[in-house]
């Protein structure tokens, strides 16, 4: 299992476009949005979180789009199947590596930008935890989408899976509200962590079956 | 000892029957050369033996579940954005890497070991992919057209390696339009689709 994590990390290290690209786009969106409107006319603090949430959704979408396509096209997926006899561990390792290298930095960037928009330093770690948990769920769901159409260009499958993440967005919005207005944060966080753990355990099973079908 | 037994294998795709009632077995230390024209089902048969494709009919039995299989198909399974050396680091454990590097020297890839693999010729990429087989101890080697793109020197090297592995007790299944010059049984997939 550790070898699978290390292999994925090794590949990502040399695929700058795959991990640095989404992070740079996230920063660009978060900087460009306030510049594109006349801030003095609006109370930006009230809706900037919506921008962070939507940006997180779109960038997660972008980051996972090619999670399997390269391995599928160059034959590495067949080799992994022969070595591991199953895709569960491969998928699990891939998702967690992507969350670690792309999702967690995304959450960090999101929480830093939230400080710039009225969240206190003490509250920022809460925002970070919420966003990191969200990326875990989003990456899992979008990975399923990517696997669905791995042989036809993964974007189609990721688009199909988009409605599945809408409840996550609602939950994320609710969690952010608890931080903004000092409501019971841990209640929502526990719910999000629960969903995250269930999705992380179950999604690799579904994705494995999908990938195996494509190999046939 | 029988390593693999295939019983009454059949495969159809889109109403087209590729082969049917295919029965054969392979013993340890023996080779099997699958022959046939284009689209006769050679690669499909290989994928069935690997468990990647399910047969429409029949079944395949393996003598042991933990059979170590080294396989190279049409796709090279190498990363084009990495150098050959980095590809080997990705494929092999640190303890196996030295053996892989030795094969890289034998296949004359040392001079391009720090170039991006995408810049290598087709033959050089094929040789790099073959190191996965050459430096990987296994019970069974399965190769789909392994000689395509190789120069004479590399072809001889691969033939000698495979011959040596057969003598050491490793089994071999391959498809090739180029005569491999190996001591193998032949399985011919004809248009009638009977072996």
Features:
heterodimer, A: about 220 residues, mainly alpha, 10 helices, about 80% helix, about 0% strand, elongated, B: about 200 residues, alpha/beta, Rossmann fold, three-stranded antiparallel sheet, 5 helices, about 30% strand
* Order of secondary-structure elements of chain B: EEEHEEHHHEHEE
Task: Please state the CA-atom Rg of chain B, rounded to the nearest Å.
Answer: 17 Å
Outline the biggest β-sheet of chain B: 5 strands, parallel
Q: Overall pLDDT of chain B, averaged?
A: 86
What is the tally of helical segments of chain A?
10
Residue fraction in strands of chain A: under 5%
Number of strands of chain A: 0
- Spans where pLDDT lies below 50 across 5 or more residues of chain B: none
Structural class estimated from helices and strands of chain B: alpha/beta
Oligomer: heterodimer
Helix content of chain B: 25-40%
How would you sum up this structure, described in words?
The complex is a heterodimer of chains A (216) and B (195). By secondary structure, chain A is mainly α. Chain A is built from 10 helices and no strands. Chain A has one domain (2-215). In chain A, helix 7 runs antiparallel to helix 9. Chain A is elongated and about 60 Å long. In chain B, the strands form 2 sheets. In chain B, strands 5-6-7-3-8 form a 5-stranded parallel sheet, with helices on both faces. A 3-stranded antiparallel sheet of chain B has the order 2-1-4, covered by helices on one side. The A-B interface holds A 3, 7, 10-11, 14-15, 70, 73-76, 78-79, 81-82, 215-216 and B 50-54, 69, 71, 73-82, 86, 89-90, 93, 132.
């Amino acid at each position: 299992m550790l070898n699978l994590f290390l292999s994925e990390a090794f590949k990502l290290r040399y695929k700058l476009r795959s991990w640095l690209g989404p992070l740079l786009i996230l920063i660009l969106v978060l900087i460009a949005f306030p510049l594109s409107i006349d801030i003095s006319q609006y109370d930006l603090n009230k809706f900037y979180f919506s921008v962070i949430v939507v940006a997180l959704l779109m960038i997660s979408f972008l980051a996972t789009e090619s999670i399997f396509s390269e391995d599928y096209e160059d034959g590495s997926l067949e080799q992994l199947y022969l070595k591991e006899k199953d895709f569960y561990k491969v998928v699990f390792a891939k998702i967690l590596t992507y969350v670690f290298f792309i999702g967690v930095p995304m959450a960090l960037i999101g929480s830093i930008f939230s400080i710039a928009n009225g969240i206190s330093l003490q509250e920022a770690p809460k925002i970070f935890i919420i966003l990191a948990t969200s990326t875990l769920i989003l990456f899992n769901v979008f990975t399923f989408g990517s696997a669905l159409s791995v042989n036809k260009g993964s974007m189609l499958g990721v688009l199909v899976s988009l409605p599945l993440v809408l409840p996550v967005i609602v939950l994320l919005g609710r969690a952010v509200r608890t931080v903004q207005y000092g409501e019971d944060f841990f209640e929502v966080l526990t719910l999000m962590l629960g969903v995250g753990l269930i999705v992380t355990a179950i999604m690799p099973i579904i994705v494995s079956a999908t990938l195996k079908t494509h190999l046939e | 000892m029988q390593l693999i037994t295939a019983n009454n294998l059949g495969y159809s795709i889109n109403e087209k029957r590729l082969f049917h009632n295919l029965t054969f077995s392979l013993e340890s230390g023996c080779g099997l050369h699958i022959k046939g024209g284009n689209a006769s089902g050679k690669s499909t048969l290989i994928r069935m033996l690997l468990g990647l494709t399910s047969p429409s009919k029949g079944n395949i039995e393996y003598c042991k579940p933990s059979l170590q299989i080294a396989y190279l198909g049409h796709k090279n399974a190498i990363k084009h954005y990495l150098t050959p050396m980095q590809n080997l680091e990705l494929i092999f454990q640190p303890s196996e890497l030295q053996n892989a590097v030795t094969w890289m020297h034998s296949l004359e890839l040392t001079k391009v070991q720090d170039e991006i693999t995408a810049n290598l010729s087709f033959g050089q990429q094929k040789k790099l992919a073959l190191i996965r087989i050459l430096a990987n101890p296994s019970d069974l080697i399965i190769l789909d057209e392994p000689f395509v793109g190789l120069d004479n020197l590399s072809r001889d090297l691969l033939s000698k390696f495979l011959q040596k592995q057969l003598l050491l007790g490793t089994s071999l299944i391959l498809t090739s339009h180029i005569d491999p010059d190996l001591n193998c049984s032949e399985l011919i997939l004809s248009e009638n689709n009977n072996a």
